[in-house]
Amino acid sequence: MSEQTSLTYAKVNEDVIRMLDKPTVKWLALFIPTLGIVGFGLFCFLYQVYTGLGVAGYRHPVFWGVYITDFVFWVGIAHSGTLISAILFLFRASFRISIYRIAEGMTVFAVLTAGLFPIIHLGRPWFFYWLFPYPNQRELWVNFKSPLLWDVFAVSTYLTVSSVFFFVGMIPDIAAIRDKVTEVPRKILYSILSLGWKGSNWEWLHYTRAYLYFAAFATPLVLSVHSVVSWDFAMADLPGWHTTIFAPYFVAGAIFSGLGMVISLTVPIRKIFHLEKYITLDNYDGMAKMIILTSMIVGYAYGTEFFMAWYSGSPYEWGQFYYRATGEYALFYWIMVACNVLIPIPLWFKSVRRNIKALFIISIFINIGMWFERFNIIVISLSRGFDPAAWGVYKPSWVELGITAGSFAWFFMFFLLFIKTLPSVSIAEMKEFLPVPRKEANHHG
Amino acid sequence: MSQEKKGGLKRRDFLKIIGVAGGTAAVTGACSPPVEQIIPYVIPPEGIIPGVPNWYASTCRECPAGCGIVVKNREGRAIKVEGNPKNPINAGGSCALGQAMLQGLYNPDRIRSPLIKNDTGRMQPAGWENAETALVEKLQEAMQKGSGSNIVFLSGHTPGSMGNLIDEWMTAIGGRHLSYETYAFEPLTEANRIVFGIDKIPTYNIDKTKYLLSFGADFLETWVSPTLYTRQFSEMHSYKDKSMGKFVYIDPRASLTGVNADEWVSIKPGTEAILALGIASAIVSGGMSANGAGPFGGLLSRYTPDKVSSMTDVPEETIKEIAREFSSMQPSLAIGGGVATTTTKATETLVAVNILNYVAGNIGQTIDFGNTLTLSDVSSFDDISSLVESMSNGEVDVLFVYNVNPAFTLPKSMGFEDAIDKVPFVVSFSSFMDETTEKANLVMPDNTTLESWGDFIPNESVHGLIQPVMTPIFNTKSTGDVIISVTGQLKGFENTFSQKDFYDYLRNAWKEVWTSSTGGGDFDSFWDKALEDGGIYKTTSPVPVSVSGDLSGVEFSEPEFQGDGDFYFMAYPSYRYYDGRGANKPWLQELPDALTTGVWDSWVEINTETAEKLGIKLGDYVRIESPQGAIETQAYVYPGMRPDTVAVMIGEGHTSYGRYAKDRGVNPITILPVAKDALSGGFAWFTTKVNISKTGKYTPFVQTQYTTSEEDRPMVGTVALSSLVSGELEQEHGEHEEPDFYPPVKHSSQYRWGMAIDLQKCTGCGACITACYAENNIPFVGKELVAKRRDMAWLRIERYFEKTDNKAGFDTRFLPMLCQQCGNAPCEPVCPVFATYHNPEGLNGMVYNRCVGTRYCSNNCTYKVRKFNWFSYKFPEPLNWQLNPDVTVRDKGVMEKCTFCIQRINYAKDQAKDNGRKVLDGELQTACQQTCASGAIEFGNLLDEESKVSKLSHDERGYKVLQSINTQPSITYLKKVKWDKA
Question: How far is B770 from chain A (nearest CA, A)?
Fold first, then answer.
């Protein structure tokens, strides 16, 4: 907090709104290649739709691969944002304040990215809307028993709620920007977005109530949405998928990976926009502690999976888990364990928790490890199921990797646009911890 | 800011919007698939009711066995081949070669019109008049030379009117007719002449035997009449009334036939004769012979089991055991003469086998000389060799090539290709540009079997008719018609044939058949009935044979092997390609080999220990070198191979013959020497030793199953015969219903479709898979996609090698796996759009139109039997003519799986409804069930307690695969029965 006492209301406005200045060459140097990669991803997708899903690397019996891995990966990342923004709000954790806006943005964009994949991986994506229960002349319902349907509802609910939460939370800040900028197109944009915010007491009262209710509404989604996504696997019979630990395991993993992504995003933003006074080492300390907690839960889950597979005595479970650790994909498995369980261990030490470089490196490994975790669960389990005659090894193709790269670029593209158009640090909440500006000095303190 | 008109759109804006929207709609509309018009018949042709098939009986000509077929014709197109139940050879069954006939008929590489080779060596399409004129010219020239043997008609085995026509023609114009079959079984004929005085191939009664001993005779694959013997083997080897027959197979290689044996006895190559004599000797000396040794006593006393054991590498104990069982389990039968083990002493082997049969009292019981095969009468290999010699010497002026491909099936060292180059005028009647036809000067493409008139006499009990199932697709002409037409243009020979075409000739010939038959009535009804039945079938009676003890000239010793290599080289006939003729049919290329599950290529089988010693692993390219040449192909490490022997399949390695066959795999015949079985003069296949070496090249071996073990999972159930007989199993086997807290699913009260598959009967031949491809419009995907595990087969035969303590050390088990139509299907609840649902008759239905392709159903499938359309697969014209109109052709993005032939179920139900009754048991057969020569698959209504499938589903041997997962499959498998331990 010591760094923040030198801040004033005016300084906060200035620092944050300065981020929305005209894009520099540096920003364009990031944005244009990002657009290029998105374009390449789009090309890969169109090629896939035109030619058939055969251009991906699927091999019987592995019929889900990189696309579903990406889907679960991005949905998982989204959860951390809501955790930081909503759940920590309810717990009144002060270390969330300067980072929660970026985290929320990350949530919305991650869900937008995740939402692409259920369409991309379809055999006939032009019929994707059949997954929605819309009234139709053929009187067809969707199958509510299917976990994929639950996904449709979970993800769309999550997208709606997070977007509304994100937007509503930003209204006072957008108003602050509206008041500061003068150029016509931006002035009109922010005027519309701020919905006529005047900063009156009445408005503040309703705003804080609304924010509280949205936070409460979004909180259960952190637990439920990823549980529902995990049930895509847990509800199947397949050894390696069919286990009750998936819901808490995935939720913990989601938060874990999201925190990693938050760190990966905030460290560069902090450096480039000189937000050291806002995003302090205390924030990182807090996040690192959550990382340790979720890493331990995830590590425990790995252990439990193996233990229960052994304890069950089922030759199918034994076969699957033995294969996981020693088969064709063994390297992927051990990368996952190293990145998720071993690499976060240094965070037990305060010096590491408060070291930005170390945190950044660890966060990159966390992302890698968590991507591999989803890959392992999906692909390795499918690769070796019940019937030995139907075992097969999957290798992703360039189309899948192109689309994955495209998805990362898509997320990054939204993020770059976000930091240039919307306030990435919460102006209003930052100000809550600063002394109110007075017209003259108050001698009575 | 100007005032905006409230409410309405300005006219210009409206037009702009419509323009853009309309344009977009037009563009995107143009991207949708083209609209196809269906035009109904205004006046339908006679005899065709759209939607109702016509069935025509005919005879299969894919090999010399002569099985009868009935072919389904829908709206003028032949779409499915099935076995003719009336023909006593196959009785309704059909092998993979027969099922794939349609891909010969509709092959995109068929020669579509006559071709004349011009001066530059290119084939030019021509009309029939020009082609016939060209032939007439050349013939007149050759006939003027008049040497009497300068015109040669080289055909395959053509017993019947076609053969007679050719004979008559050649006699008339001064030429000669030779019939050449790649697998002529000459040693068998000769051995029968020596021992019984009858130089014919008999019919064996395998179904009546209790103990079958095969010395390398691959009767489940290509030996003599595979469909007949598969059917009979199923009779003999299946478990019935607490007993079953025993089958022991003796061969240096465990072929597909060998792995179906109860014991595989590996033997030193070429020593089968000695082993047979040793067994006979043990029978006689053990006092177990019914006949006594007869004239062979002295001979047998020289081949005692201990001596024989050291000469053959077969343990003495085994010899004595076989002797005991062979003589006590009566009637027994010993057979031999498989192509792959035909050495230079093959006739001796078969003489020894005849002696063994004699000593055990089998003559007249299980060997029937009352019904001999016409295959016994093909030209000898000596004749063929001298033909090649005369061709080389320029003595042949005109050569006709009909239904043979000697440029592929004769060894390179024989020089056929150079010899044929010396023939000034070669005429081929082939439907395909095969290696021999490439050398032709004139191609006059025959109609394929399904477009032809003709007949075929395989043995004394069957006179099969061949009738066209549809009008010829291309501008081809029946060779019989060509012969008659050409003769009519030859000066001085115009009246040789009184008939105007081959159809007339055929009917004339049948008038004689009619007069000698006892049917009576008029010829036309006789003819129509014969056409309907597919021919006429006579019962024959066994003919008594006497055994001659005169074995002069027969010397039982080890045969010659040329070459100084370390390994005996075995070229074995393929049950998928026969002698290479099946290689241009993609269904057969994509049908996984039962033992290796390899597709679209060849491989060399090498014993496990040998491979380890040489550092060779699966997929390594290996060079096989004989004194005649070398071939390079991938290694397959196989425990069923003797350590000192390697084997390559015959059938691949074409250098021509169409896009599916060309430049694929290797042809082992190319490195074989020209060697003959000494006594019969027949071609000897197993005569050379080779060197093998790694080339260093490696590519992953393309197979549909990359595992070989059941991995401790209860996939194939086995049970020991002793526990069945003692009733032990019956007590254990109860109805186990898994507990379920859901109420039972409401099913129809009329039908509940179920299937029973008897693993004791399944031989792994894969005909069911090919039939399924034909019936259900399953696309073939090619080697690259099979390598990516994208093959579309709805039915697969899983193959497991399990370690056991039998003589071979391992046991091979086959499990046909298809959609189990689970009662508690895991695929149904997970489909988000209800594209897969439970049908009230117990089927798991698949709605292609509704599928969006999430593929969750496959992920949740316990048996992994669902396939996905990764691309929109093409059926190159005219293969698309074969498509079954009752089954949707699936587009990309859609899942598919076995439907229990729901189109057949619906058809049967409609028929039954029209007749006011329910579907009768046996009336409805799935495609796989229909074609299975063993009768391994049974299908029907489980609610009908009298139905076969109902009874089998309660059989003591019944079990469900992966029963503990509680998917409640509708398919009951019957456990395989082992003679000793399970």
Answer: 19
Distance from CA of A240 to the nearest CA of B (A): 12
The per-residue pLDDT for B981 is 58
pLDDT digits (tens, 9 = 90+) for B800-843: 999 988 888 899 999 999 999 999 999 999 999 999 999 999 99
A106 band by pLDDT with thresholds 50, 70 and 90: very high
Task: Tell me the per-residue pLDDT of B657-691, one tens digit each, with 9 for 90 and over.
Answer: 999 999 999 999 999 999 999 999 999 999 999 99
Domains of chain A plus CATH, in order, are 2-433 (1.20.1630.10)
Sheet arrangement for strand B246-250:
B263-265, B246-250, B211-215, B332-336
- Quickly count: other Cβ atoms within 10 Å of residue B584's Cβ: 28
Residue labelled with tokens 């590996």: B266
Strand partners, B882: none
Q: Hey, what amino acid is at A445?
A: G
3-state SS, B911-970, equals: HHHHCCCCCCCCCCCCHHHHHCCCCCEEEEECCCCCCHHHHHHCCCCEECCCHHHCCCCC
Q: What is the pLDDT of residues B887-898, one digit of tens each?
A: 999 999 999 999
Residues of B in contact with A387 (CB under 8 A): 713, 715, 798, 817, 862-864, 962
pLDDT of res. A377: 95
pLDDT in tens, A234-276: 999 999 999 999 999 999 999 999 999 999 999 998 888 888 8
Mean pLDDT of B734-759: 83
| H or E element, residue B884 | none
What mean pLDDT comes out for the span B685-707? 95
Q: What is the SS3 string spanning chain A? A: CCCHHHCCHHHHHHHHHHCCCCCCHHHHHHHHHHHHHHHHHHHHHHHHHHHCHHHCCCECCECCCHHHHHHHHHHHHHHHHHHHHHHHHHCCCHHHCCCHHHHHHHHHHHHHHHCCHHHHCCCCHHHHHHHCCCCCCCCCCCCCCCHHHHHHHHHHHHHHHHHHHHHHHHHHHHHHHHHHCCCHHHHHHHHHHCCCCCCCHHHHHHHHHHHHHHHHHHHHHHHHHHHHHHHHHHCCCCCCCCCCCHHHHHHHHHHHHHHHHHHHHHHHHHHHCCCCCCCCHHHHHHHHHHHHHHHHHHHHHHHHHHHHHHHHCCHHHHHHHHHHHHCCCHHHHHHHHHHHHHCCHHHHCHHHHCCHHHHHHHHHHHHHHHHHHHHHHHHHHHHCCCCHHHCCCCCCCHHHHHHHHHHHHHHHHHHHHHHHHCCCCCHHHHHHCCCCCCCCCCCCC
**Residues B960, B977: Cα–Cα separation, whole Å:** 16
Q: Do B853 and A152 touch (CB under 8 A)?
A: no
At B21, the pLDDT band (50, 70, 90 cuts) reads low
Is the previous residue joined to B187 through a cis bond, with omega within 30 degrees of 0?
no
B553: left (phi over 0), alpha (psi -120 to 50) or beta: left
Would you call B386 an interface residue with chain A, using a CB distance cutoff of 8 Å?
Answer: no
Q: Are B163 and B410 in contact (CB under 8 A)?
A: no
Q: What pLDDT was estimated at residue B1?
A: 41
| pLDDT computed for residue A69 by the predictor | 96
Would you call B850 an interface residue with chain A, using a CB distance cutoff of 8 Å? yes
Length of chain B: 982
**Predicted TM-score of the model (pTM):** 0.93
Distance in angstroms (rounded) separating the CA atoms of residues B903 and B379: 47
> Given this model, what pLDDT does residue A368 score?
95
Q: Is residue B517 within 8 Å of B491, Cβ to Cβ?
A: no
Strand partners, B718: B976
Residue B16 near chain A (CB below 8 Å): no
CB contact under 8 A, A152 and B965: no
